[in-house]
Amino acid sequence: MLLTFLAVTVIAIIRARHLFAVVMLTGVFSLLSAALLVQLDAVDVAFTEAAVGAGISTVLMLGTLTLTARRERVPDRIPVAPVLIVTITGAALVYGTLDMPNFGDPTAPAHHHIVPEYIEGSEKDIDVPNIVTSILASYRGFDTLGEVAVVFTAGVGVLLLLSGGGMAGSRRGGEMDESIAKTPQADSVEPPGKGGATKGKEDGA
Amino acid sequence: MKHHLVLRVVTKVLIPPILLFALYVQFHGDFGPGGGFQAGVIFAAAFILYALVFGLETARRVVPQGTLRALVAGGLLLYATVGVVSMLLGDNFLNYSVLRPDATAGQHLGILVIELGVGITVAAVMIAIFFSFAGRPPTIKDEDW
Amino acid sequence: MFQFIASHYNYWIVIFLMMAGFYIVVSRGNLVKKIVGLNIFQVSVFLLYISIGKVAGGTAPILTGKPELFSNPLPHVLILTAIVVGVATTALGLALVVRIREVYGSIEEADIQAANEAMEQEDVKAAQ
Lengths: 205, 145, 128
Fold this sequence. Notes:
The complex is a heterotrimer of chains A (about 200), B (about 140) and C (about 130). With about 200 residues, chain A is mostly helical. In chain A, about 70% of the residues lie in helices and about 0% in strands. Chain C has about 130 residues and is mostly helical. Chain C has a single domain, classed as Helix Hairpins (Orthogonal Bundle), CATH 1.10.287. Chains in contact: A-B, A-C, B-C. At the A-C interface, helix 1, helix 2, helix 3, helix 4 and helix 5 of A face helix 1, helix 2, helix 3 and helix 4 of C.
């Protein structure tokens, strides 16, 4: 049922031309998928999806809209090639699912490799009731370290792109090159105190 | 949005529970649903709400740019440090069993600390991203919406 | 036959969502909309993983002391981190869009391409 709601929301997103509506529908989409995740027993994931999808990413997209444009241009011709590509890919994927195990099947191969050991170990060795936490932080700690590093890198990237420069890059040519050359200098991953000092100057300019 | 009295009051009432809930999610993640990722996002949401209602400058005064950048890196470093400490104590990287004499207690401590590192980095990154988006001069006026 | 449809319905809706996201990415020229499309694609992958992890009659993977049947916690772990990483990378994409808007004055792909071509022609003229 919820899956059908999701499908309807996506159709609305495709059809909407006003980007504000698109962003709001994306928030609805995230919230619906969070509800669906609760149904599928993934409470931790649903928690994150509700906070991230409906909260932060909506705010970020609205922030982007205030900096860019509100409307999408209506395409002047009906896109035939994309429809064709998407239909063919979709058909191939549906053909692939015919061999997949049934939904909720306890004998599916995904449930029998290593997971029973994790569940048992979580009880005996780690003694943490939330199995998701014990796998996340202990069994797959290295993996999570990598994920945190990715979040860190993305954050640094955004800071590099947006913190310095102001509107200096709005005209192309020499000025643009200058702003690109200037930005990393002001915001590279140097000690925060020094970076903050340079940043203050940039803001004043 | 400084002129909306209702928004201001409701925000002031809401922010402490949100922060408290974030901390609960952070440190109760071993027992119920929760953990560093969720807590970090909720924590950041509280700050974003504050910045939306009271203005970016006020929020910047609460978390200065330098502190924020230090926290972005600090969380990741805290995580990695736990790994290095467990390596120095003579076991594998990120094997927490050696942190305490009792293996299970070591696991508990390790999980708590690395979840804290995750939470700090995620919250700081989200706040920093929002600040840098909000800090750009907008090209659309309020009336145009 | 009906049972087969009911037990594969989740995969098909996921594929529909995935293809809808893919369609937005390839057919729309607006960069913000493209990112929304990528987001939809991403969420559909999350749902695929989680729906594979579901065990009929299982509960959320939190130990309560009683012997219970749990849903598979491993996909939950993978997707949990993927969501947060996803929003961070989305933010990076949006930041790029903002910078593109500042440099080109537009977020429509067609305009950007036209501006690039005009710039190249100028360069060719300057070289001559």
